[in-house]
Structure formats: structure tokens, C-alpha cells
């Protein structure tokens, strides 16, 4: 089993589909991951499962890989209810979680933007490029750069899980380039394809960060590191000024109002 | 049973489940003097840019691993929100620690009794008055020396 723990999760799921089913049962969403290069030991460790739950998960995984092997089932105290773990964040990480909220508000609007674009005579270039500006400036420059330049530096940024996050950021930037090209050419299909792909990517990405990655990083931070990271993030925010987040919050509010008006027309 | 939970008599001398090892010396992690909140100066060199522990007087007696788990690597001030006088001075000192001494973080360690939460309130008041913002953590110690909660506030 020791060797298996050091194998990449995608390869394990492909070879032993039961592994994917067991992971899904435990709320570990590796099956749809496009990269899947995390090692099994990291996948299990990063989810911070209850000790009993982890023991049964490991038993089930081992049985899925070696069905003929004699493995003793872990003794689980069924009278002991495992408490659902409440996620708490340190202040600098909480700030990043809060920034996700505005990004998720744009993601929620994407189907309406696509519908509006498809039903319009011509592509509303200002609308599409306004969204692109939000993504590039608020989501990418303001938010993702703090992750890449500050947060991820507190863990091994060569770790697979961090590399997956970097890859998501890059894939997102690729979709945005395609959306811009679509807007320039007036190509509605191109805009639709890449806006929806961006939405799907970022929805999963943010969920992974809020529920798995950020708590995992937080658990490793010392009090001193939390203070230091808080200062670095505050300095990064100060370098762009207070107006930037206010400007993009206003953009989202106005976009929500505009699309609501379109729906009720 | 009635009266103030902070001064109610409780005897747990019968408690026998004293786990842990008594072997080896446990060096003090204290790196400064003085420590009482009225006596310390926010401008003392040992506060500058540091992680600070503001501990309610009783916590170090209640929690067995106080030095190793919480004092190590930090500068400290101690206070009692129930018995100390002139506590408005404490609010100003917290503000000065954040703004002038530019401390990195502030952890406030209190007992579970209701009056002890007054110390956490002093910290919140001082932090709100400060122009700099820093992470503040609250640690609550149970009467029998267990950590009941530890969270950023």
C-alpha cells in the first residue's frame, strides 16, 4: 500500500475505477479533475478527515486495489459520531475567501450574459470586454496574484495540488483570450464556449480552494506566518488602492441590474 | 448553585487522569520583564514587530503546557479583567502596541468564566481604535486546564 500512496490519483482511478467511486463516496472530488497528478497520500491528507473516516477510507481503497488481499477491517466505534468539521480561516485567508464572493457573482451571471449575447443582433462588445476587464483585473491581478505571489509561497509551491491551481489560473487566462478574440470578431459561438468553460473551471476551482486548499494551508501556518501574510496581503491591496475593489463591486451590481432588466423585458 | 462563576468554589483535586510525562526539565520561555499590563511599556524593545500574547492571570496556572505551547516565541503581557483597575489604560496600550510597536499578531488567552471575556473585549476595543489592522486570536482555557477553543476573531 505504501507504493500506492505515492502514485498519481488519475492513474489509480483509470486503473482501478473502484478507487474513484470510493473517493466520491467520501466527498473527495478527484474523478472530474482534469489534471489528477496529486499523489494519493496527499489527496487523503489534504482532506483532514476524521480519524475513523480516514481509517475506513484507506481500508476501502486498499480493498479496491487489492481485492484478493487479506486486509483486516479497521475497528470503528459506531457509537462515536464524527462531528462535521467547521471550516475557519485565518484573517488573510478569510479575505481571499471573501474576494471569491464577488467572482462567484460574475460566474452566476455568465449564463444570462451568454443568453443575452445569443439573442442580440450583434455582440455587445462593451459588455463582454467589461466582464473580461473584471476577470483580468479583479479576479486575476488583484486576487490570483495574491495567491500566487503570497499564499502559495507558504507551502511547497511545487506540490501537485498547488501546480493544479496554477494550471487552473493559466487555463482560465486561455479562455479569457478566446472570449476577447470572439468579441473582436463578433463570434457568438466562441464567446459562449469559452465563457461557459471559464464558469465551469472557476466554479470548481473556488470550491476546491474554499473547502480544501485554503483550510489545508491554514493548518500549516504558524501564528507568526499568519501575521506576516496578513501584512503582505494588506500591502498588496494598498498598492492598488481602495478604489479598485469598490469599482468592480459597482460593476457587478450594475451588471446584475442590467441583466435583470433584460430578463424582465 | 448560584453566584459568580468566576469565583465559584470548585474542587477537582480528585482528578487522577494526569496524562503526560514528568521527565525532563521544562525551561521557561519568558524572554522579558516586566509582564503585568500596567507595568509594561508598548515601546519596550521586546514588543516591536513581535507576536504578542495577552494572557489572563489565571491561564498560566490552569494550562499545563502554557510555556511550550503558547508563550514560546512570543512577548507577553498579563492582566485580570475582573480585578485590575484603570482598564481604559489597557485599551490605549493595545492601540499603541498595534500602531506604534507595530506588533505582528495579538493572541488573547482567557479563562472560560464570563468575566474573563472582558479581556477579549478590551483587545477588540484597542484593535478597533488602532489605525493598523492585525490578526487577533482568542484562546479559551477551561477550568480544568483544557483548551476549549482557539480561533481568529
Model description:
- The complex is a heterodimer of chains A (265) and B (153).
- Chain A is mainly alpha-helical and 265 residues long.
- Chain A folds into two domains: 64 residues, SP0561-like (Orthogonal Bundle); 174 residues, Four Helix Bundle (Hemerythrin (Met), subunit A).
- Chain A has eleven helices and no strands.
- In chain A, helix 6 packs antiparallel against helix 7, helix 6 packs antiparallel against helix 9 and helix 7 packs antiparallel against helix 8.
- The longest helix of chain A is centred in the last third of the chain and has 33 residues.
- Chain A is globular.
- The model of chain A has no long low-confidence stretch (mean pLDDT 89).
- Chain B is α/β, with parallel strands linked by helices.
- Chain B has a single domain, classed as 3-Layer(aba) Sandwich (Rossmann fold).
- A five-stranded mixed sheet of chain B has the order 2-1-3-4-5.
- The termini of chain B are far apart.
- In chain B, 34% of the residues are buried.
- At the A-B interface, helix 6 and helix 10 of A face loops of B.
Fraction of residues in β-strands of chain A? under 5%
Instruction: Give the CATH topology of chain B.
Output: Rossmann fold
> Biggest interface pair, residues each?
A-B, 14 and 14 residues
Mean pLDDT of chain A: 89
The CATH architecture of chain B can be named as: 3-Layer(aba) Sandwich
Specify the structural class of chain B: alpha/beta
- Quaternary structure: heterodimer
- Overall mean pLDDT of chain B stands at 93
What's the helix count of chain B?
4
Distance N to C terminus of chain B: 32 Å
Q: Cα distance, first to last residue of chain A? A: 61 Å
- How many domains in all of chain A? 2
Number of helices of chain A: 11
Query: Which range best describes the helical content of chain A: under 10%, 10-25%, 25-40%, 40-55%, 55-70% or over 70%?
Result: over 70%
The profile of the biggest β sheet of chain B is: 5 strands, mixed
Please identify the top-level CATH class of the largest domain in chain A: Mainly Alpha
Amino acid at each position: 500500500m505504501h507504493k500506492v500512496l505515492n502514485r498519481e490519483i488519475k492513474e489509480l482511478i483509470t486503473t482501478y475505477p473502484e478507487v474513484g467511486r470510493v473517493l466520491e463516496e467520501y466527498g473527495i472530488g478527484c474523478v472530474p479533475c482534469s489534471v489528477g497528478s496529486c499523489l494519493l497520500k496527499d489527496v487523503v491528507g489534504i482532506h483532514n478527515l476524521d480519524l475513523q473516516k480516514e481509517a475506513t477510507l484507506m481500508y476501502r481503497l486498499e480493498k479496491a486495489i487489492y481485492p484478493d488481499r487479506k486486509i483486516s477491517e479497521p475497528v470503528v466505534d459506531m457509537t462515536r459520531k464524527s462531528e462535521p468539521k467547521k471550516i475557519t480561516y485565518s484573517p488573510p485567508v478569510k479575505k481571499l475567501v471573501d474576494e471569491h464572493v464577488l467572482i462567484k457573482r460574475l460566474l452566476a451571471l455568465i449564463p444570462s450574459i451568454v443568453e443575452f449575447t445569443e439573442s442580440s443582433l450583434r455582440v455587445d462588445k462593451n459588455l463582454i470586454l467589461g466582464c473580461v476587464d473584471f476577470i483580468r483585473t479583479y479576479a486575476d491581478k488583484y486576487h490570483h496574484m495574491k495567491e500566487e505571489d503570497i499564499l502559495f509561497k507558504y507551502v511547497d509551491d511545487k506540490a501537485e495540488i498547488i501546480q493544479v491551481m496554477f494550471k487552473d489560473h493559466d487555463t482560465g487566462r486561455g479562455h479569457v483570450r478566446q472570449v476577447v478574440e470572439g468579441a473582436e470578431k463578433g463570434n457568438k459561438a466562441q464567446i459562449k464556449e469559452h465563457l461557459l468553460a471559464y464558469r465551469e473551471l472557476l466554479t470548481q476551482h473556488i470550491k476546491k480552494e474554499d473547502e480544501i486548499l485554503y483550510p489545508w494551508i491554514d493548518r500549516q501556518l504558524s501564528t507568526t506566518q499568519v501575521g506576516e501574510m496578513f501584512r503582505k496581503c494588506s500591502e498588496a491591496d494598498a498598492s492598488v488602492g481602495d478604489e479598485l475593489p469598490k469599482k468592480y463591486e459597482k460593476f457587478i451590481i450594475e451588471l446584475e441590474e442590467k441583466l435583470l432588466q433584460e430578463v424582465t423585458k | 448553585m448560584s453566584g459568580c462563576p468566576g469565583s465559584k468554589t470548585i474542587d477537582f483535586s480528585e482528578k487522577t487522569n494526569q496524562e503526560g510525562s514528568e521527565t525532563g526539565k521544562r525551561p521557561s520561555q519568558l524572554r522579558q520583564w516586566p509582564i503585568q499590563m500596567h507595568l509594561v511599556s508598548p515601546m519596550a524593545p521586546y514588543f516591536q514587530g513581535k507576536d504578542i500574547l495577552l494572557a489572563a492571570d489565571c491561564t498560566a496556572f490552569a494550562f499545563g503546557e502554557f510555556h511550550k505551547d503558547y508563550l514560546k516565541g512570543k512577548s507577553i503581557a498579563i492582566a485580570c479583567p475582573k480585578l485590575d483597575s484603570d482598564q481604559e489604560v489597557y485599551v490605549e496600550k493595545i492601540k499603541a502596541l498595534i500602531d506604534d510597536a507595530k506588533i505582528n499578531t495579538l493572541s488573547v488567552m482567557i479563562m472560560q468564566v464570563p468575566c474573563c471575556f472582558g479581556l477579549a473585549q478590551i483587545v477588540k476595543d484597542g484593535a478597533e481604535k488602532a489605525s493598523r489592522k492585525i490578526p487577533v486570536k482568542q484562546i479559551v482555557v477551561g477550568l480544568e486546564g483544557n483548551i476549549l477553543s482557539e480561533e481568529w476573531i
